[in-house]
């Protein structure tokens, strides 16, 4: 059964929730051991996987996640690195603890070794521990300033940072005051294509991630909370 949430005033509220998340999580966890915090995180992720969520704002669904079917990396690769959307599959990468669903692989080429690109990232971030949307650039306030990532591939290892020099800062920098791209965001780039829509029926890459604190923002790592992300990626105009 989906957990239903009513979320109002998204454009104004996300920044407040982002600040509240840090304060509340730190306050609630300061007397807990790291092992206890990690156990709470594991339980929160398990609950999210089994129940899903449905976030509604003014009668419109803005984030919906059905109960998740987890598959292994072996099954994922056997399926040509795809996740079956009809079964709401997410692959678990044991080395990082990141869960990933590829909704669309996207158009254009993959980012090959030795290449660098500037990528437009649009996202919604849901704090699984607090059961609430924490930040998003899928709102009117940030519609003209999406987050731009400078990303490079060196022999299969991806490094990235938010570009706040050539472009106005997006939501992630505005909320976290850091150009650091969460490590969990880089997991999909091995499998997706980063191009632009050349014709009307082209679809840019879209993924969904469950990111544990170790692969998240500096705030998540400090306060030990996991986040769910819905993300799209496309190359900037050259």
Q: What does this 3D model show about the protein?
A:
There is one protein chain. The protein has 238 residues and is an alpha+beta fold. It has a single domain, classed as Chitinase A, domain 3. The strands form two sheets. Strands 4, 5, 6, 7, 8, 9, 10, 11 and 12 form a nine-stranded mixed β-sheet that branches. A three-stranded mixed β-sheet has the order 1-2-3, with no helix packed on it.
Q: Main attributes?
A:
25% helix, globular, 6 helices, alpha+beta
Overall mean pLDDT score? 90
CATH architecture: Roll
Terminal residue distance: 45 Å
Helix fraction, binned, reads 25-40%
Number of helices: 6
SSE sequence, one letter per element? EHHEEEHEEEEEEHHEHE
Number of strands: 12
Low-confidence stretches: 8-19
Task: Give the arrangement of secondary structure elements.
Blueprint: E1 3-6, H1 10-29, H2 34-51, E2 53-57, E3 60-65, E4 69-71, H3 73-78, E5 89-93, E6 98-104, E7 116-127, E8 132-136, E9 147-154, E10 157-162, H4 171-176, H5 183-186, E11 205-211, H6 218-223, E12 227-235
Parallel strand pairs: 1-2, 4-5
Antiparallel strand pairs: 2-3, 5-6, 6-11, 7-8, 7-9, 7-12, 9-10, 11-12
